[in-house]
Amino acid sequence: MAKPRIGIIGTGAIGGFYGVMLARAGYDVHFLLRSEYQAVRQNGILIESQVHGELRLPSVQAYEDVTQMPPCDWLLIGAKSTSNDELAPLIARAAAPDARVLLLQNGLNNEEHLRQHLPQGLHLIGGLCYVCLYRKAPGVVVHQDNGMIDLGYHSGGADAAQQQAIIAEGAEMFRAAGLKAREMDSVDAARWQKLVWNAPFNGVSVVLNAGTDALLANPASRELILGLMEEVAGAARACGYPLPEKLPELLIAGTSRIPDYLPSMYHDWLHKRPMELDNLYGEALKLAAEAGYSMPRTETLLNMLRFIEAGYLSEN
Fold first, then answer.
1. How far apart are CA 182 and CA 186, in angstroms?
2. Does residue 84 carry a pLDDT above 80?
3. Where is the Ketopantoate reductase N-terminal domain (predicted)?
């Protein structure tokens, strides 16, 4: 059976890493780029991995215009949620009939918001990446730890058996690339669980200008992180998604064992790009309020981040 053709829309850290891993496993991978197109065409993509060693894809099937891409059976969406309004036309143009669209984004309800703008025949899948990496330079990604991915079917008209087969197919692609992959019954529950880590560490790293090591070494910031985690976990329970017992403590213990890490929102702040505030915080606050649950710590953090973002965006 022929391997599916894979398209990467949003070839930054996430798209670059997973795209290179899949290409090295023998998949036919096509990359859509914007500002990094010339650099990638000339030099390829380099993954400086502390897990797998140096991974170089010297010859990249790269495009700066989606109309040049061949129709793809799978589309991996690595672009951040701040660009979701622009994504639907690109996805529709690059997708083969009955394509699987895997949304690799942080936050809540991303699939729900994108679904209404996509052709009905496309299968939309939620993907959650557990990976520490960042873009070092055009076409250069530093991979520090992990790489596991969760997949859960969102919508597209498939019956239960077809949904299971589609998710199994996607998980097997990543396993063939040497990565762990889990098949999830509920993508919404998985997104809430990941948010318990993402919401505190992303925002606090910006406000306090610090990585994970410093944040966990200081008792005050550690207590702040733990309080935010417990608040997000409480919101998840209020919204009908009970999470594992003592999840915040387990996540903090796990974070203390990885290399010092600056989350993706920190890099957005550092490079004066819009931050994913609505999807990481606004959506959680809205859903929690609808369930009658208050998130004062999270709301305060969001207000500080909005102030910071407004300051540097007004300068651009």
1. 11
2. no
3. 6-155
